[in-house]
């Protein structure tokens, strides 16, 4: 089952990248030779992520996720852009839902997203607001030994700060708000992931 999901995710990534390429080419052609489209890609490592799950008295609770991160790529114009990303968050442990009741366990999520980007540039610094949607896969592992998972579509939004080291390479710091359903009943959790990394303009 996991192998099939990984193949599906890979296919979706390829489709998103191809769509971005066609969109960039079409927009550049429509706008004429003065249109300046900049394609970029990069990767971030999740330094700090926190889930919104609850904690029960006397039970182990760690809302701070373990290792996570994302890869991303997009096309940026002067006043707007489009970005595709693949992300994964580490697990957080606390009180989840199982069969409509509280149950101790851990949750993690991953998926693919597409967001519109609105930038503000201040010399070598740039500030970006991001809003879009994600195809997420959430997984719950319960203390009882049972597990559950679910795929869903969820809003995806965040903000990013960039610093240009030169014309091609920039350092990046992002905050992304990600949510996902994690069981067949449709219960969901959300996580705020802070990540840092670098991007490269082509």
TrEMBL record:
Subcellular location: Cell outer membrane
Xref: Gene3D superfamilies: 2.40.160.20
Signal peptide positions (record): 1-30
Domain Outer membrane protein beta-barrel: 20-202
Domain of life, per lineage: Bacteria
InterPro entries with a match to the protein in the record: Beta-barrel_OMP, OMP/PagP_B-barrel
Keywords: Signal
Pfam families, per database record: OMP_b-brl
Record protein name field: Outer membrane beta-barrel protein
